[in-house]
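User: Fold this, then the next.

Assistant: Folding the first:
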Amino acid sequence: MTSTLEFGLDTFGDVTTAADGQLLAQPQVIRNVIEEAVLADRHGIDFFGIGEHHRKDFAVSAPEVVLSAIAARTERIRLGSAVTVLSSDDPIRVFQRFSTLDAISNGRAEVILGRGSFIESFPLFGYDLSKYEELFEQKLDLFSELVTKDVIDYEGDWRPPLKDQRIYPPIGDGQLKTWIGVGGSPESVIRAVRYDMRLMLAIIGGNPQRFVPYVDLYKKASEQAGRPAREVGVHSPGYIAESDEEARRDLFPHFKKIRDRLGRERGWPPVTERDFDNEIEHGSLYAGSPETVAKKIVNLVRTLGISRFQMKYSAGPMEHEKLMNSIALYGTKVIPLVRSMLAQP
């Protein structure tokens, strides 16, 4: 596990504040995200993911465009979505955008497909939210064909059939690395196995121990399908500072702001500082000094047997400069510490 463990960073392009406390314009936030990714590449981080949203608190609605700009300025870091909302998109256009990114980045593109926990894309693009599950299943079926075959023959009741159809540009070498994002549904785990795709667990709160059955299910179902299980990754929020006290002091106001905003939309109670501390100490918030965060990641890796950890480093309106420092600490201190700890018997 230690030799193959990968480390990633994810962002939704959260709209951040300037030094005067005012929110930055979304165009500047996008430019800052590009600089954050360049820094991640410089520090040897393996993957950089950008999520898709269509609302005022997140600046990135077209991740592949931003990722292409990053590709032109980086050398080795893999680049992908976190996640692509396939249900409200066209699978062919998604594949074409990522195959184009793969060409620009010289083979570094990945895609994480999901249904999305935010639903604003459905009315925006004219999709019926009551078909949330059905659309994802049908479009994933076509996307699987696009990833695995050069010539497509496809029929579905949501679009006209395809016959002897080639899609351009193709992936230059091998297949587009594809993951299914799963938030805690056994059916989604089985779906990942059925399509022979990698499993990305979105663990955004609570004890990650509860996801052990999902990893076991993925491995068992893969074995029953007659093939080895593919990689399993985890996406969770985090923030790193020089000390635990500094990390908590920096993060809590922004953590509360974004959680309370989403809570008003989804019926959650307001977050207390006790909730925040509990999530750091017993849940899935990887916040603290490099040593604290490294120990927490090691425990996660040993508990779930994952091959990639992706930290959602953007934290609501937290300033770009603090995010840059967190990225630097992740690359220069946390990752070496984790590798060292995992190498010990």
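Now the next one, as you asked:
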Amino acid sequence: MEKAEKLLTVAEAAKFLALRPGTIRAWCYQRRLGRVRVGRRAVRIPASEVRRIIREGSELPTKPTP
């Protein structure tokens, strides 16, 4: 049997990445951060996605710089 990956709430992912929940939601909407739908509106962030952002040292901008 495969071990299920830990899923984080938007608030938990934001806390780990020291970002605001709105930024996490924006990254999900822009598909810069993977997510899993767990309901009609609810999403969860796989822990592997949070680790990927930390590993890359990504500071993914929410708005393009001119």
